[in-house]
């Protein structure tokens, strides 16, 4: 009986650790230049790919801004509710082969994301090679 309880407990802990290591959920974006929190992005899975949508803007003065510099169907859309991460696919420990839009300037970059522990997410946007870009570390919202 003790052996069965121990096995069950270990199985539950393993499942809980795997769930905690998932990229889905809400993340506080941190500006890599100023260190300030800017928004909350909800990362979710759809059709086997990963997407991220702005669900909260932390600066009240910026809550009604639109993505004037965006192109295509995102042009002039409100930043609140904008899907900024599109089409990432799991590849080992990271998610890549998708894009991220910077709503401040409308530019679209190649993107990959990778967990750095259960509560930190490294988000890298780049042009061409991943060496030509910048990384932000987002914090999980509990």
TrEMBL record:
The keyword Glycoprotein appears for this protein: no
Signal sequence annotation: 1-20
The keyword Signal is annotated on this UniProt entry: yes
Pfam families: DUF2147
Keywords: Signal
DUF2147 domain sequence ranges: 25-140
Classification via InterPro entries: DUF2147 (IPR019223)
UniProt-recorded name of the protein: DUF2147 domain-containing protein
């Amino acid at each position: 009986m003790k052996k069965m309880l121990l096995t069950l407990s270990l199985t539950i802990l393993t499942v809980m650790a795997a769930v905690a290591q998932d990229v889905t959920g809400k993340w506080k974006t941190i500006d890599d230049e100023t260190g300030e929190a800017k928004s909350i992005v909800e990362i979710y899975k759809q059709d086997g790919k990963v997407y991220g949508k702005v669900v909260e803007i932390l600066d009240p003065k910026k809550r009604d801004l639109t993505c004037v510099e965006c192109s295509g169907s995102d042009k002039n859309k409100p930043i609140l509710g904008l899907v900024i991460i599109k089409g990432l696919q799991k590849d080992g420990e990271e998610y890549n082969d998708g894009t991220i839009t910077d709503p401040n300037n409308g530019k679209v970059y190649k993107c990959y994301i990778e967990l750095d522990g259960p509560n930190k997410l490294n988000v890298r946007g780049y042009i061409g090679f991943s060496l030509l870009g910048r990384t932000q570390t987002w914090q999980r919202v509990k």
